[in-house]
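I am still learning, so can you show me any protein sequence you like together with the matching structure tokens, please?
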Amino acid sequence: MIVRATRLFIGILCFLSVGGLVMAQGPPNAVFLTDDEAWCDRDNNQSTAEILITGEVDTSRFELHLELRGAPQTLVNLPEGVFTLFLNNQLGRNEYIIHKVVEIQEDDVLETEVGDTLVIEVHPYPDMSLSVDEGDFCSPADVVLRGSEGYASYTWDFGDGSSRTTSANWAIHSYEIPSDGPPVVFPTHLTIETAFGCTDEVDGSVEIYPGPEAAFTATPLVLQYPDLRVELSNETAGSWSYQWDFGDGRSSPSRDPVYHDYPTYGEYTITLEAYSAHCSDTALRHIQILPPPPEAGFEPDSAGCPPLTIAFENNSLYADSYVWDFDDGTGSTEVHPEHTFAASGEYRVSLQATGQSGSDQTEQIILVYDPPVADFTTDASGVAYTEHSFYNQSLNAVEYLWD
């Protein structure tokens, strides 16, 4: 990529084109015919610049007063015409200035301040590196490749037939190989280009290992106590090491444990890990063993006088929610409720116990007796030493005490 810039001319020159050669007319003049240039650093950055020297007399000799990359220099005894100046360019900006041209005639000396500038830019080559930055390298693997920062474009060859160009110094690529095959090394290649068109290339590699795809079946997934056995079938393809975790504190390294017996009802998670020295994968199955059907029960079946307060003791089995009906228009969902019966009567208290395996209901009779009412009449006249009769008219009583 060539960068061209407009040079600065100081003074007023007139030019005449003769057969494609640009000739200056008038007082002595010198001008760069070579355009400004730019290139990337190379083993030899030398170049040449053509300078056109013109004067009044054909037999004149000329002096050029130059500034070469900051250093003044005078070239003497130069003829008229095109002069080739050899330049030793260095990395960076190289500035060459024609300050003045002097024409030396037999009997006169003429000179012109020129101020023509030639700029040659030498841009550094990039110092490129390529690294595999992140990834577990187990197929399917998302791998981050990274190059040195600060360049205009990055062209990535991922080694699997795909490529991509980015403005960022990194790229994510997904690699996938058969799970039952050997590891695969993918040769990677990175080409970068700077804003000035300088390029560099670097090679690398990514090794991808086959990754297992753990799979198994567990039958059944839902059991009813007292059935506690689960049948297992390992369906993982390929040759791997295995580790089973049955979720009840027990494990096995067997490829095919065939079945597993659980100690009691509950919820368990079976985990199968298939692994190699580099890669692993896991599969999960959730097992639910339902408890026996609920058995509703409570105490006491009590009796008493109003207000009668009873603390009910719930002794139901295999249930986790409860609905009480006290047969007086009220109820409760507590496990062990306390209830006061305000009026006498016969109350059929019921309890419905519900669990994972269904529900059950039971009831007890609570007797709340009518309170006794003491009452009596007599024929007593108040006459001493006379026998009198007393008539008991009490209600709801079975025992009496007279005074």
In short: Residues 1-25 have pLDDT under 50 and may be disordered. Residues 94 and 310 are 107 Å apart (CA to CA). The longest strand covers residues 109-123. The two ends are 133 Å apart (CA to CA).
